[in-house]
Amino acid sequence: MQDMQQLYEQGYAWLVTNGADFLLNLVGAVVIFYVGKWAARGLKGVSRRLMQRARLDDTLVSFAANIIYALILAFVIIAALGQLGIQTASLIAILGAAGLAVGLALQGSLSNFAAGVLMILFRPFRVGDYVEAAGTSGTVDEIEIFQTRLRTPDNKVVIVPNASVTGGTIVNYSAMDTRRVDMVIGVHYDTDLSRARNLLMEIITADERVLADPAPVVVVGDLGASTVDFWVRPWCKATDYWPLKWDMLETIKTRLEAEGITIAFPQLDVHLFREEGQGAG
What we know:
By secondary structure, the protein is of the alpha+beta class. The protein contains 7 helices and 10 strands. The protein has 3 domains: 16-105, Helix Hairpins (Orthogonal Bundle); 124-172, SH3 type barrels (Roll), CATH 2.30.30; 178-258, Alpha-Beta Plaits (2-Layer Sandwich). The chain has a 5-stranded antiparallel beta sheet. The longest helix is centred in the first third of the chain and has 52 residues, at 2-53.
């Protein structure tokens, strides 16, 4: 009971001596907190509008705005605690150590996050592009903060970590408006090459999807073991690439056979020699 009385007297004496200062500091801390919180919200809105004007990805805009708000609010809280007389140096050190530990534990996720931000900023591809990255290929469905979703031609969804995408070679098949269709047509060595070349050029130029500029190319590209290989390379719009290639291969085979030109295939000639002294058997 005596201890409680002594504690009460000490508290009353401190309040009489320091009460006014503490009240002023408390009011100052509350003002700092609410004004700082209001300023943080305002800066969050300004930064969001600036990023939207720059036409950044909505995912990045939302995430970056929230990060800005959280960082400003953290400084506001530290300033309010300092106004109350609380030593914030040790608190900052503890938060820094905790942040370092969390960063080391989540370094894989942080690298994926950084890669996602870089992809959104530098735009190696966009949603809807057909790309090849991280050992897989497909149409980009969504670019998220930590991962990218690809949809394969057979309608499978492949989720690739962003760090794996940016850590390797990216092939964007949709980046340009036009593409070249590369086909190799092998004919027999006995074929009249001039006639075959003219026929191949006639076939590809007859298709309205083939562009006149750049001009299509038909050349003898290789002399193989069993075939003379023509490199047939027409240009088309990127959206026509696969339909044109499939139609061209079928049309070329049909027309060449109708014109009596054989599309060669690997053949092996076997020569048998009979040694002297061996019987007919």
